[in-house]
Write a structure and sequence with these properties.
This protein is an alpha+beta fold. 46% of the residues lie in helices and 14% in strands. The strands form 5 sheets. Strands 8-27-26-25-9-21-24-23-22 form a 9-stranded mixed beta sheet, with helices on both faces. It has a 9-stranded antiparallel beta sheet with strand order 11-10-20-19-18-17-16-15-14, sandwiched between helices. This is Phospholipid-transporting ATPase. It is found in: Golgi apparatus, trans-Golgi network membrane; Membrane. Keywords: ATP-binding, Golgi apparatus, Lipid transport, Magnesium, Membrane, Metal-binding, Nucleotide-binding, Translocase, Transmembrane, Transmembrane helix, Transport.
Length: 1094
């Protein structure tokens, strides 16, 4: 583990601390080098052997570092990487990195703290007051387009390079920067307000019994209510104020990433002798967790940037859309063409005179080939798309928090989703009880209720059962209850007895605590519960370590056996007749991911009988229970129905058996070496030949329309990965029930691996599988990425679905980075908890669900929705429209610049290659603004297919991921169109003008405006009334402005019929062939969407 963790955000190449403090094998051990590693020639990363142990948590770098870094690399983008690295180095030098250390915190004496710790506040802002302007300018001018225009605008301060008026260059650039800064400022203010709202909330809640339950779903994705225990010695204080009068302190380890462990000590010095108490994860409440009941008084150990939730969250980064990167590459190609054209012009001049100055003048003269209005139009278009998304009545409550990447919604290939609260509602419902010979479903639960009522209505029945189990050796077969005088048939009595035993076991074997809400007169829950034993059903709620257990206990309540009270040593059940039965808890064995089962040993108060109850997954319980021929089959049947199964069993213990077990168990717990192994061995000695009572089936309710939404996304070609912090069995069950994995599809569960040899063998086994879904745990994933990163990602990407369980927040973000690096495809992450923030921020497009789990993911996301099903319309409709519209808008704006640059080139070549502008002053400004801006921008309203069609045929989405709407092919088509139309307009005007040069300007410029308006009409696929208005408005503005353009036009000439017919002829020649080509193409080779529309 690294010695220190820098407080600044983790970057590529920085050392990261392990998320799990599990023991790891040395990579130099013999078992890491088994002889059978040559079964498949997997590529072994030498990086795994050379780097420090913690390096495998960083992003993959080996292959990237092996690339040749020559002049080509420098010119093709290496310069930007070098500049970014230099900026990062400067930032790290300016920002002091504070080493994280262990600390001692004194109770009630903050002045004894030697160091100052971070402010306890959430911060999602990208900038502060001082870094806003330079930060925004850097983000803008790192794009070639803006940097290019800054250089061109600055060149106009040099007299020998000046082409036109300064405002024709600086006004557009200033407008672009102003719009960008206003947009970023609005986003920053919104982030500040959201952070302020979150920071104003404070949780301060503990129980007087020395324990409480907390919810950690915002931290690790698990909605299990975890039991936390208070420090023992502080529970003996007479009053809360005494906490500040004792001389005590807490020593805690340094901040680290691992959310599943904590090491510390509590020391009280004013006692004789001093009291030392060890502290573990059971004593801690992390930030971003919620106290579920009671009140808590605690000592704050970590704050701000040092909390586990913040350490597991990456700092927010500026996201750049793929379309912006593609347009940036196209502008570089245009610049190259501009330089080549300028060199050709100077060469045709013969390199005479100050040719270098003329070269730069030509570069400035052709600068409109790269239009500055491109950024303005695209940014305004993005804002329009965001407004349309938020106004869509079909996805109410959707919020666009990052307005720069709406086109990303139309380019996604991988969707990485959380499980709890995203795909599921995390509300469990009891569905099935199977006793081997008889099965009860939701429609036959009244029969069970009747059996329970009859069972507890006969006082002698319980006595008989108790006596039958209170023997020297465990009873292997349940003894039927003694029949009353009006006896039912023997089979009926047997079923009734089995139902009674099963329901009783379910009501006792759990970790559930009933909670009674505070009364109106201010009584606390414990006071209300203990004062007169008033266990009212009206205000009772249940806390549990698993939502499955809550569902089971609620079910036993519904059939008549109610859990009414529980503390650390006992629990009480209320029978249908109102009698309260007390059971003492002797031992409890909590559920772990390794054991896959939990157990409890209880003693009944009235009879003194000791019973060991156990429940767990079928794979763990099959070898524990007595032989049977139905368990495996029925578990499979329930799993196919999407139910989560638990096997329930019991074993009666004599007093001697329990005493012997207790002695061995306590001795094992005191062992210094291999304590966990010895403890589990003692417990397993009890887990033999247990009586199988029943099999239960619980359903986790899915979010609304999850199944059709996932099917829609799959048909759209989007690969779905589920990343969850939950258990493997739960994740697998939800993957099946949500149809993330189809019923006909095989599932390959990647077995647990701990070293290179095991990982190699398991990867070989996985490679032999075809078209199967992959289920893998976070620990196994960690090992695979350490040694076989490239191979694992390559195999996983071929799977139709991937489920990663027991993932830490950092691992989720790491998986996103791996997909982005290895596949070069666009990724989207969706989640609803604080543990999903890193994943959301790492993805190209982050979507947060605002629900009952909180707002942290929603606030950190680029897009916020209220239900998972809304993602279908968000991607299929708005993603499609945003990408298609921006692609058309960007290319048309470039066409608008290329056509006027072509006219300038023709003009200069005819007039002796003079570097003189064709159009000056207001004509150039008006051309890119009021004369053509509204029709061109109206393309943001265009759509190729109706929303209903896009949702009905999600296969149309696949074409978007190929990027065919904006590619070098489409760009070259627009270049050819621009050259053709520019040449026709300029040569036509030169051929048809009569005597004065001003006539050439009037004819060509008017024909140019009309051509642009007609080209907009040519590219529109679905007309909107605002498009028609924009066309006529622009034409009206141009005609009205002719009266004021006497400086550029001959007003007498433009009112003659000769002017009108010449302009009309040139316009028709420039546009008519394109209309004909479009008609023929749509007739003989129509696009896929037009076939569906027809």
């Amino acid at each position: 583990m690294a010695d220190s963790i820098p407080l600044n955000s983790m970057r590529k190449g920085s050392k990261k601390v392990a998320y799990y403090n599990t023991p790891r094998h040395s990579r130099y051990s013999l078992e890491d080098e088994p002889s059978n590693l040559d079964e498949m020639p997997l590529m072994m990363s030498e990086e795994g052997f050379e780097n420090d142990e913690s390096d495998y948590h960083t992003l993959p770098r080996a292959r990237a570092n092996q690339r040749q870094r020559g002049l080509g690399w420098l010119l093709m983008g290496g310069w930007k990487i070098l500049c970014g690295s230099c900026c990062d180095c400067l930032a790290r030098m300016c920002r002091r990195t504070k080493e994280l250390k262990a600390r001692t915190v004194w109770l009630g004496h903050p002045e004894k703290c030697e160091e100052k710790y971070p402010k306890n506040a959430i911060k999602n802002q990208k900038y502060n007051f001082f870094t806003f302007v330079p930060g925004v300018l850097y983000q803008q001018f790192k794009f070639f387009l803006n940097l290019y225009f800054l250089v061109v605008a600055c060149s106009q301060f040099v007299p020998s390079l000046k082409i036109g008026y300064l405002y024709t260059y600086w006004a557009p650039l200033g407008f672009v920067m102003a719009v960008t800064m206003v947009r970023e400022a609005v986003d920053e203010v919104r982030r500040y307000q959201r952070d302020k709202e979150m920071n104003s909330q404070l949780y301060s809640k503990l129980t007087v019994r020395g324990s409480c339950f907390i919810r950690t779903d915002q931290l690790d994705g698990e909605t299990d209510w975890k039991l936390k225990v208070a420090v023992v010695c502080t529970q003996r204080l007479p009053a809360l104020g005494d906490l500040f009068s004792i001389n005590a302190y807490v020593y805690a380890q340094k901040p680290q990433l691992d959310i599943h462990s904590f090491e510390g000590n509590f020391t009280r010095e004013d006692g004789d002798p001093q009291i030392h108490e060890s502290l573990s994860i059971d004593h801690t409440l992390w930030a971003s967790t919620i106290v579920a009941s009671g009140t808590v008084i605690g000592v704050v150990i970590y704050t701000g940037k040092e909390t586990r939730s913040v350490l597991n969250t990456s700092s927010p980064k500026n996201k750049v859309g793929l379309l912006d990167l593609e347009l940036n590459r196209l502008t570089k190609a245009l610049f190259l063409a501009q330089v080549v054209l300028s060199i050709v012009m100077v060469a045709l001049q013969g390199f005479v005179g100050p040719w270098f100055r003329n070269l730069f003048r030509f570069i400035v003269l052709f600068s409109y080939i790269i239009p500055i209005s491109l950024r303005v139009n695209l940014d305004m278009g993005k804002s329009a798309y965001g407004w349309m998304i938020m106004k869509d009545e079909n996805i109410p409550g959707t919020v666009v928090r990052t307005s720069t990447i709406p086109e990303e919604l139309g380019r996604l290939v991988y969707l990485l989703t959380d499980k709890t609260g995203t795909l599921t509602q995390n509300e469990m419902i009891f569905k099935r009880l199977h006793l081997g010979t008889v099965s009860y479903g939701t429609d036959t639960m009244d029969e069970i209720q009747s059996h329970i009522g009859q069972s507890y209505a006969q006082p002698s029945s319980q006595t008989q059962q108790s006596n039958s189990s209170n023997s020297s050796s465990p009873s292997r077969k349940p003894q039927p209850a003694q029949a009353p005088k009006a006896a039912a048939p023997k089979v009926r009595r047997s079923v009734s007895s089995r139902i009674h035993e099963a329901v009783k076991a379910i009501a006792l074997c759990h970790n559930v605590t009933p909670v009674y809400e505070s009364r109106a007169n201010g009584e606390t829950e414990s006071t209300a519960a203990e004062a007169d034993q008033d266990f009212s059903d009206d205000n009772r709620t249940y806390q549990a370590s698993s939502p499955d257990e809550v569902a089971l206990v609620r079910w036993t309540e519904s059939v008549g056996l109610t859990l009414v009270n529980r503390d650390l040593t006992s629990l009480q059940l209320k029978t249908p007749a109102g009698q309260v039965l007390t059971y003492y808890i002797l031992q409890i064995f909590p559920f772990t991911s390794e054991s896959k089962r939990m157990g409890i040993i209880i003693r009944e108060e009235t009879t003194g009988d000791i019973t060991f109850y156990m429940k767990g997954a079928d794979v763990a319980m099959a070898s524990i229970v007595q032989y049977n021929d139905w368990l495996e089959e029925e578990c499979g049947n329930m799993a196919r129905e999407g139910l989560r199964t638990l096997v329930v069993a019991k074993k009666s213990l004599s007093e001697e058996q329990y005493t012997d077990f207790e002695n061995r168990y306590n001795q094992a717990k005191l062992s210094i070496h291999d304590r966990a192994l010895k403890v589990s061995a003692v417990v397993e000695s009890l887990e033999r030949e247990m009586e199988l009572l029943c099999l239960t089936g619980v359903e986790d309710q899915l979010q609304a329309d999850v199944r059709p939404t996932l099917e829609l996304l799959r048909n759209a070609g989007i690969k779905i990965w589920m990343l969850t912090g939950d258990k493997l069995e739960t994740a697998t069950c939800i993957a099946k029930s949500s149809h993330l994995v189809s019923r006909s599809q095989d599932i390959h569960v990647f077995r647990s691996v701990s070293n290179r040899g095991e990982a190699h063998l398991e990867l070989n086994a996985f490679r032999r599988k075809h078209d199967c879904a992959l289920v893998i745990s976070g620990d196994s994933l960690e090992v695979c990425l350490r040694y076989y990163e490239h191979e694992f990602v390559e195999l996983a990407c071929q799977c139709p679905a991937v489920v990663c369980c027991r993932c830490s927040p950092t691992q989720k973000a790491q998986i996103v980075h791996l997909l982005k690096q290895h596949t070069a495809n666009r990724t989207c992450a969706i989640g609803d908890g604080g543990n999903d923030v890193s994943m959301i921020q790492a993805a190209d497009c982050g979507i947060g669900i605002e629900g009952k789990e909180g707002k942290q993911a929603s606030l950190a996301a680029d897009f916020s929705i209220t239900q998972f099903k809304h993602i279908g319309r968000l991607l299929m409709v708005h993603g499609r429209n945003s990408y298609k519209r921006s692609a058309a808008l960007g290319q048309f704006v470039m066409h608008r610049g290329m056509i006027i640059s072509t006219m300038q080139a023709v003009f200069s070549s005819i007039f002796y290659f003079a570097s003189v502008p064709l159009y000056q002053g207001f004509l150039m400004v008006g051309y890119s603004t009021i004369y053509t801006m509204f029709p061109v921008f109206s393309l943001v309203l265009d759509q190729d297919v109706k929303p209903e069609m896009a949702l009905l045929y999600p296969e149309l989405y696949k074409d978007l991921t190929k990027g065919r709407s904006l590619s070098f092919k489409t760009f070259l088509i627009w270049v050819l169109i621009s050259i053709y139309q520019g040449g026709i307009l300029m040569y036509g005007a030169l051929v048809m003008f009569e005597s004065e040069f001003v006539h050439v300007v009037a004819i060509s410029f008017t024909a140019l405006i009309l051509t642009e308006l007609l080209m907009v009409a040519l590219n529109i696929r679905t007309w909107h009334w605002l498009m028609v208005l924009a066309e006529f408005l622009s034409l009206g503005c141009y005609i009205a402005s002719l009266a004021f353009l006497n400086e550029y036009f001959d007003l007498g000439f433009i009112t003659t019929p000769a002017f009108l017919w010449k302009v009309s002829v040139i316009t028709v020649v420039s546009c008519l062939p394109l209309y004909i080509i479009k008609y023929l193409k749509r007739k003989f080779s129509p696009p896929s969407y037009s076939k569906l529309s027809s």
